[in-house]
Each structure stands twice: as C-alpha cells, then as structure tokens.
C-alpha cells in the first residue's frame, strides 16, 4: 500500500513541477544562447555590462521563483490532501497517518532533490560557456589549489559530501514544511496563517541553535577566512565545505527527527478537520 501511496503522491506533484522545471531549463538554454551569441565579451562597454547584469538578474529571479514554487506546491498538496475537505476522503483509506506522512515525505524529498539538481544543471548551462570552459581547462590545477583540493582532499570526496548534504537538506526542508502546516492546524482559526507563523518560528529557532552549535564547536574561529601576516586570506574552501557539511548534516538530522515525530503525533492525535 505504501508503494501505491508514493506513486499517487509523486503523480500529484509531477503535473505541476515538471512544467515549472521545464521552464527553468528552457530559460537556462535561452540565457546561454543570449550570452554566447548576443553579448560580445571582447568589447566590454556599458551596454555589454548592462545586458549581462540584466540577464543574470532575470535568470536568478527565475531560479528563485522555481525553488519557491516547488516548496509552495509541496506545501499546498500536503495541506489539501490531509487537512482540507479532501482530507475526509483521504482518511477513509485503509492507511495509517504514519504511512501518509512517510509517503508524502519520500515523494516531496525526491522532487526537492530533482529541483536542486536541475537548478545546478541550469547554472552549468548558463555559466559554462565555451570561453569559461576553456579558461577552466587551462587553469584547472590552479583552481583546485586555490580551493584547497589537494592531497587527501579529492574532488570526489568534496562532491560526495555535498551530495549527502543535498539529500539530508532536502529531507529536512520537506519535514520542516510539513511540521509547520501540522502545527498550524492546532490553531482554532486562521490555520494557514498559523502554519506560516509556525514556519518562521521553527526556522528562527533552528537558526539560533545552529549558530550556538557552530560557535561552541569553533566553526567561526577555525574555518572562516582569517587575514594572515602578509595580508592575504588564510582560507581553505574544501576544508570549510567538508566541516560545514558535517555540522549541517548533524543539525539537520536532529531537527528532522524531532519535527517528524511532532508531525506524526499531530496527524495521529490532534487533527481536527474543518
């Protein structure tokens, strides 16, 4: 039954998210075409700078819109399926609240990961123009050196850490949205507003807790850029990213477990459909 639920939840998300992510890729291709055929980088002037700035600004507005749209669609589908009038029909199914929550978490997490991967792909399409690719190929060793990717610190290790962080971050983001919506249902009136308020409270508490943990563990003193005696910045990007991945993953797992249990409890014990 869980498999059928996941399939249903994926189908419900697909019809909207495929469209907006298709638009994202088309926008990236259009931006790539514009950058490579319409802007002459060999003749840098005010017009070129303005066109480049507007293109980049428009592209990042589209990216922000797609990311926000993805989260909104995930939130709306969760709310409508479990807490609106549709929730009465949902609760007639021979499925436990835990199965509903797990199914929707898996489906939404898959789409969050797809969202992140497609955003990265679109950035690669826009940024990796022939001139940029040639410059990178010619200076690859120096780029790795500046990033601190030397010795035991390999590109594969850094990429693996980032991929794991993306997966954990996607799960955490989905659970945070679901927890906020579920907490909003505890309000007697204005439940959608309550969900929004709950989301801001959760993100604020998590941010403060993360800041405290990073301060106590020496993150700011050990890994942020420090000016050396010769005036240069003593900063190893790769080590910074690895440590950031570790501490962020730990915090995300802890908060996700707490919020998942809270969401499950509300779904099982406190749900009152209106």
TrEMBL record:
Protein name stated in the entry: Uncharacterized protein
Record-annotated membrane-spanning stretches: 12-34, 54-76, 106-127, 156-181, 193-220, 240-267
Domain of life: Bacteria
Organism: Extibacter muris
Alphabetically ordered keywords of this record: Membrane, Transmembrane, Transmembrane helix
